[in-house]
Amino acid sequence: MSELAIEARGLVKRYGDLTAVDGIDLQVSSGTIYAMLGPNGAGKTTTINMLTTLVRPTSGEARVAGCDVLRQAEQVRRRIGVTFQDIVLDQDLTGRQVLDIHGRLYRQNGDLRRKRITDLVDLVQLGDAIDRIVKTYSGGMKRRLELARGLMTDPTVLFLDEPTQGLDPQNRAGIWSYIRDLNRQQGLTLLLTTHYMEEAEALASQVGIVDHGKLVAQGTPADLVAQLGADVIRVRGDGDSSHFVAVITGMPFVERVESDSDSNNISVYVDSGSRRLVEILGASSGNGYQVEDVTVARPSLGDVFLHYTGRALRD
Amino acid sequence: MYATYVIWSKHMTKFWHSVGELFGLALQSILWVVLFGVGMRGMVGNVGGNDYMSYILPGIIALSALGGAVGGGMVLLDERLRGITKEYLAAPIPRLSILLGNATSTATKALIQASIMLVVGMLMGARLAVTPLGWLAAMLLLALFAIGFSGLALAVAAVSRTIGGYHGMIFLFNLPLLFASNALYPLKVLPTWMQVIVLLNPTTYVIDAVRALAFGADPTIPLLLSLAVVLLFAILGIWLALSLFQRSVLRG
Fold it and tell me: Can you name the residues that pair with A214 across neighbouring β-strands?
């Protein structure tokens, strides 16, 4: 059994009448990448804020890197790195000054700071730009600088709140590869939040699906997907689908049928997509339903999300 | 308190690199003294045996420190609204150091401004007493005063939701601190009810003491009392800022 880097029990945060986080339990093993996946406003950022000691939970408790976030906040802060959802950089300093001041706040000595900055500039490929004023950076460069700042103090656990939000695909792929390298080469534990399905799929060894302040499902991406069935046949059509759904739900090889009312899509989870396609389509004829499009695919985290929350996750 | 020093040095680094802020500070200092001093001197002549320029200079310096503190509060508000304070909050440093780093950098700028003003004032005929120790004491008092008022400004900045709201609140402080003091006119020319208000204003004490220490005027308030009042003001200001800042942080 590996040690837990993050352990939360019954975390709740209320703002007046609004319950932002409604009893979240988390277990993140050391050396893993955990992705909290959920739509905006699901309570991901509030959860991160509680785990990073920025916000005091209304109730519940949590330990991060072995220390209690309420009673040992100072020790927790010493052991973690954080990047925030918004870009939080002093725009009038150079990248080097940003990293240097950060290191000084954590009482790193001059030699160590210089060495860390050299290594990190190399890692996030900021090059000569490190001596330019942050104001002149592109969005992707600012994100990379923030990642470097989060790593400056060599944390045990790194929290990344929406690390690639608003980035172009190239920058996103860059950040992903840094995150993977850090995890693989240094055994760094990462907790990140995202509302991008692909991001969770590409990075996470554990995924937690968050909706309305609750953790509705948790597991490895493969396990979560496997629970749904081997294959999914997606049917899009026009007209009244109730009869069609009733018929296929009764078929022995159909594990689950889900309809997304927003898009008129019906997802049919079966043991084998190619083998069952004809029978499924056969059941669709007549009874006021007209099939327009059919695809067979492996289920994705997107399907898992739809399954647990009853709606598709959109950006 | 090492973190205070780090945050102070960050603000100072930004200050030295900001041509606009440096130039603005210098020009402001000169304009204050020239416009205010010359205009009022033409009207008044001298006060209690001293020339009006020497009389009014400590007042102008104290009031410009108020202006600096308002700017310091703006910096915190800006950092709060843009989320930059989160970097400090997630770091293993006391909350107090965030505020003290800001207030001490404000005080440092106020002292730089005071020095420029003294030079300009002397060029315009103010007569400084030759007491280096007195100058030092006057500077210390000014620094404490700037820290105290920074505290008030930071307290307002800690709870303001918008820049407009901040300035509205600050204006309420600023006006009485300027006019209900001995900055522009001596205490004894005022009616009694006004004297009471003026004596409640810490600005009065710092100005009276600076006049005595740096310009050789006779203190109308005992120097030690002035020092005590200004010190208390600095502590209260920072305490207020800290309690409101803690509250706004905990609310998340």
Answer: A211
CA distance B33 to B28: 9
Q: Is A102:A152 a contact under the CB 8 Å cutoff?
A: yes
Alpha-carbon distance of B22 to B227, in angstroms, equals 30
Instruction: Give the lowest-confidence range in A12-21, A231-240, B173-182, B185-194.
Output: B173-182
Kindly provide the ipTM of the predicted complex, given to two decimals.
0.85
**Which of B2, B87, B93, B105 has the most A C-beta neighbours within 10 Å, making it the best mutation to test the interface with A?**
B87
Position A33 pLDDT exceeds 70: yes
User: Residue B141's Cα: distance from chain center in Å?
Assistant: 10
* pLDDT tens digits for range A202-240: 899 999 999 999 998 899 888 888 877 778 888 888 888
| Interface contact A104, partner B, CB < 8 A | yes
Among candidates A88, A90, A105 on the partner chain, residue whose Cβ is nearest the Cβ of B91: A105
Q: What is the mean pLDDT of chain A?
A: 88
Domains of chain A: 4-218 (3.40.50.300), 229-298 (3.30.70.260)
- Which of chain B's residues have a Cβ under 8 Å away from the Cβ of A89? 84
Tens-digit pLDDT profile for residues A82-123: 999 888 899 899 999 999 999 999 999 999 999 999 999 998
Start-end of H helices in A56-109: 73-79, 95-105
Q: What is the dihedral of CA A148, A151, A154, A159, to 10 degrees?
A: 180
Domain ranges of chain B: 2-251
Answer whether A88 sits within 8 Å of B93, measured CB to CB: no
User: Is residue B3 less than 8 Å (CB to CB) from chain A?
Assistant: yes
B17 touches chain A (CB under 8 A): yes
- To which H or E segment does residue B69 belong? helix B52-81
The rounded distance, in Å, linking the Cα atoms of A8 and A42 is 17
